[in-house]
Amino acid sequence: MSAPSIAVVTGTSTGFGFDTARLLAAAGHRVFGTMRDITGRNAEPARKLAALGITAIELDVTDQASVDRGAAKILAEAGRVDVLVNNAGTAHFGTAEAFTPASFERQFATNVTGPFRVSRAFLPGMRAQGSGLVVFVSSVVGRFVLPFAGVYTASKWALEGLAESFSYELRPFGVEVAIVEPGAYSTNISNAVIFPDDAERLASYGEVAKTIEKIGAGLAASARDPIEVAEAIAALVALPAGSRPLRTPLPVGSPVEALNAATAPLQRAMLESRGLGAFLAKEPTPA
């Protein structure tokens, strides 16, 4: 997508979202960056985006009316959307049983239903124009599993399944899907972790529950610069249509690369055996 495009990036107050919006704008794309509370606690990020030529849009991915209003405003101003980056997300970490069902549902509301809701707002236009790119920011734990990250991990596995299903169903309309799978990166999500809300259940795990502290320390020690993820997303946008990989694990050399390479042929064979090969991307021609 070498020509300037109209891009929407969710969750642009900090981290991956802010950097992605900034890089896409620098590449010449017209960018709309969404976030909550742009006149309150996120007024400063919204101001910074505006200074970069990016239009800040009030949008809460967990609120259908908010998404409807935000999408309508974007489409009224731009007429179309070529790129959607579903980046907004939260992280629930801790003993899985110690989260109440209500807290569990809130994790899925943001990380799964949110991207689904925003995608539905823009996919009709992309299908009508016969082109578009939808990027889903997943995680290394969308493919692997960590103990004490079960709620967050479950949401990212669900997001991966949704995104890959979209990739098949949208391909006949010329709309591509790309899934980005970051490992440990230094973003604000680590400062806004949501912990278990059932204190009695958590206490019953005793010393076992404290393992999350060791995991958190290890992740923090290995955290990388989030600009790498934004650069990878910008690179996906810049690639010609039809040449983008479905999954991009980060950093380069991530163990997820081996997992993806091992499962892709099995997935392809499964679809082909059911007469669904037409929904698969063409395999690259050997050099």
**Beta-strand share of residues:** 5-15%
Sheet of most strands? 7 strands, parallel
Can you tell me the CATH class?
A: Alpha Beta
Q: What order do the helices and strands follow?
A: EHEHEHEHEHEHHHEH
- Structurally, the number of domains stands at 1
Number of helices: 9
User: What is the name of the CATH architecture?
Assistant: 3-Layer(aba) Sandwich
Helix/strand/pairing category: alpha/beta
Radius of gyration: 19 Å
Low-confidence stretches: none
Care to describe what's here?
The model has no long low-confidence stretch (mean pLDDT 94). Helix 5 (150-170) links the parallel strand 5 and strand 6 (175-182). The protein has one domain: NAD(P)-binding Rossmann-like Domain (Rossmann fold). The chain is globular and about 55 Å long. Helices cover 46% and strands 13% of the residues. The two termini are 23 Å apart. The longest helix has 29 residues, at 101-129. With 287 residues, the protein is of the alpha/beta class.
Q: How would you concisely characterize the structure shown here?
A:
The protein is α/β, with parallel strands linked by helices and 287 residues long. It has a single domain (6-258), classed as NAD(P)-binding Rossmann-like Domain (Rossmann fold), CATH 3.40.50.
Descriptive key words:
287 residues; alpha/beta; Rossmann fold; 7-stranded parallel sheet; globular
List the helices and strands and how they pair.
Blueprint: E1 6-9, H1 15-26, E2 30-35, H2 43-51, E3 55-58, H3 64-78, E4 83-86, H4 101-129, E5 132-137, H5 150-170, E6 175-182, H6 199-203, H7 211-222, H8 227-238, E7 247-250, H9 256-273
Parallel strand pairs: 1-2, 1-4, 2-3, 4-5, 5-6, 6-7
